[in-house]
Amino acid sequence: MFPELNNLLNTTPDRAEQGKLTLLCDANTDGSFLVHHFLSFYLKANCKVCFVALIQSFSHYNIVGQKLGVSLTVARECGQLVFLEGLKSSVDVFFRAQAEPHPLQFLRSVSLQPSPEVHAWEANAENLQPLYEFVREALKPVDDGEAAWRCPVLLVDDLSVLLSLGMGAVAVLDFIHYCRATVCWERKGNIVALVHDSGDTEDEENNILLNGLSHQSHLILRAEGLATGFCRDVHGQLRILWRTPSQPTTQRDWSLTYQYKIQDKSVSFFAKGMSPAVL
Amino acid sequence: MGAGRGKPRALPTRPQYRASAEGGSGADPGGEAGPAWSGVGGAGDVSRPRVSGRRTGSCGLLPLPPTTAPNGSSGPSRDSVEWEGRSLLKALIKKAALGGEQVHILGCEVSEEEFRAGFDSSINSRLVYYDLFRDPLNWAQTGEALPGGPLGALQAMCERTDPGPVTVALDSLSWLLLRLPCAALCQALCAMSRQHACRGGGPAAEQLCVLGLLHRELHGPGPMGALSSLAQAEVTLSGTAGQASAHMLRRRPRQRPTLETLWFSVLPDLSLDLQGGPPLESQPHPDPHTPQVDPASHLTFNLHLSKREREAKDSLTLPFQFSSEKQQALLRPGPSPATSRIFYEPDAFDDLDPEDPDGDLDV
Fold first, then answer.
1. What GO cellular component is one of the record's annotations (chain A) (predicted)?
2. How far apart are CA B76 and CA B172, in angstroms?
């Protein structure tokens, strides 16, 4: 985790809030450093983490996690971390019997059905219920009465790839809806999900997914590339938006903007235009 | 009941209103009977405009002074990510509940506890909540889910409303619109008003007010336009400088649509606080503690002007600027031609023709 980002978000692993949905979004840049931050943050906060990793392999996250001070191998072995490695287990989908449920079985069961409006075949993918069942099972509270871990956390990297794999935006929204109902509301845990913003107004599915999740989120972290292009000393800009989806507040939703530079083991944040390299 | 005496009226531009109006009382031919979507034009009834959540959400209908024409229909409240509309929806629900109406809520986006937070216990006991949040698609297979999915829940809700003034709140219309075909949703909304009108007794007694919350970024112009045409009022939420504003577009039958802007805030106890105008501080003030930096200092050349230099600069007249002095100089007859003469010494190669080259012109 990055201590400077903790300061900006005004949180520490001991005082992590519960029942919140955090949306990570990146536009014109790579926002995966935020995923690594939250992964190490919640592991240090002694929470049970279910990580649905669809983009990179386990060893990638492990190497970065070691730089940030957590060992994913140890966490997985002692049961704190449940890791779904999408790249590896997607191959298993095709080599196991179809009757067995698999969290990624939507990859296999994209069926073609005629659409009544248009006389053409259109893909009708299933929903993400098996993935939800996997998450629910992974974050099930331990039955021995004593809570070993603080609160369950679901981390998804990332949701946009599900759109590329053939799921509709509404199916992904339904999956997050059910995860919210189970993880956030029922078990008072947190969800952190990364969505890419391609900036392409023609990508309606992605826009629906992004906006739909934005309306449900309590915290939105948006990493953007600089408007003027690439820079060696400033890698991007982070916008933080705190939301209260249903409570009236006398103060409107609160937002801050910082610029950042990613270094080997940390990320430094500074106010706009105040990079140490240009001062 | 108006079923017998309703004769077909002249087709308005919005046939939906008419279709639903046939069930209402025809006693006042000038007024609209009350199905949910049409305006209820009875004397003395204060219908709340429905806020349909289309683009920006804001419902400004309740706080309107009683002199405004009552409408029965609701409009969508449209909100955005920065300016959320659920607190406004809850404020309107609170007002309806305090007014003695029955309030039915279809909750899809947040849990029942989160939605009920902020209402006190007396209001909470009046709210009838249909929970579509926990298991909307029946994935858990526990049998507790509302049957028929979202559409079935919507239809069941309108069947369970008792006659009398009712407010139905849909949180949110966006959630329903993403999962149901737009036509089915619009038909369900119209049927809701029709059924409620048919169930009730007198003319102005039943008013069905439907409040819907819409997130404007999620939908294209087609579904938005369809819901707009059903609604009698649309409230769009936005704001500046930390102050929320509601742009209200009201459509009344046979009247021109009106657009109004209200500045409001929702207090923690979910009461609405209307402000008169835009916030006073509309521009950010510079921080008074930061010293003003003079960019012309610390230079190797001088950019400042002394007093004499500044006076000379201000009194300078530019050569091509048309000032009043120049105008007077031109208007005055010019000096004698003797003051400007041309001296020309022809050399050997010049060909001077004494004839006037323009001699053949009749000038």
1. elongator holoenzyme complex
2. 10
CA–CA min distance A249, chain B (Å): 6
Determine the residue among B115, B119, B139, B275 to mutate to test chain A binding: the one whose Cβ has the most chain A Cβ atoms within 10 Å: B139
Contact A185 B111 (CB under 8 A): yes
Minimum CA–CA partner of B180 in chain A: A170
* Alpha carbon of B42: minimum distance to chain A alpha carbons (Å): 34
Q: Chain A contact for B78, CB < 8 A?
A: no
Cα–Cα distance, A193 to A212 (Å, whole number) = 13
- Tell me the pLDDT of chain A averaged across its residues: 85
Chosen from B56, B80, B178, B287 to mutate, greatest number of chain A CBs within 10 A: B178
**Chain B nearest-CA residue for A250:** B267
CA–CA gap between residue A153 and residue A166 (Å, rounded): 26
Interface test with B, best of A20, A135, A167, A177 (most B CBs within 10 A): A177
- Is pTM beyond 0.80 here? no
Whether A115 contacts chain B with CB within 8 A: no
Number of other residues whose CB lies within 10 A of the CB of residue B343: 4
The tokens for B234 are 């649309």
Query: What's the farthest any 2 CA atoms get from each other in chain B?
Result: 120
pLDDT attached to residue B44: 32
Query: How far is B236 from B51, CA to CA, in rounded Å?
Result: 9
pLDDT for the residue A48:
93
pLDDT tier for residue B140 given thresholds of 50, 70 and 90: confident
Would you state the pLDDT for residue B24? 33
Chain A positions in Cβ-Cβ contact with residue B81 (cut-off 8 Å): 211, 214-215, 220, 241, 243
pLDDT of residue B285: 47
Cβ(A225)–Cβ(B247) below 8 Å:
no
Q: Please say whether the beta carbons of A257 and A236 come within 8 A.
A: no
Kindly list the distances between the CA atom of residue A151 and the CA atoms of A48, A180, A184, A188, in Å, as whole numbers in the listed order.
Answer: 6, 14, 10, 7
Average pLDDT over residues A185-213: 90
Q: Does B83 touch chain A (CB under 8 A)?
A: yes
Of B174-178, B286-290, B294-298, least confident by mean pLDDT is B286-290
Q: Which two tokens stand for residue A108?
A: 């296999």
> pLDDT confidence of A131, banded at 50, 70, 90?
very high
pLDDT reported for residue B2: 37
Q: Is the dihedral of CA A59, A60, A64, A70 positive or negative?
A: negative
**Domains of chain A by range and CATH?**
3-110+125-222 (3.40.50.300)
- What pLDDT is attached to residue B293? 65
Sheet containing strand A219-224, edge to edge, reads A81-85, A48-53, A152-157, A190-196, A21-27, A219-224, A236-242, A254-262, A267-270
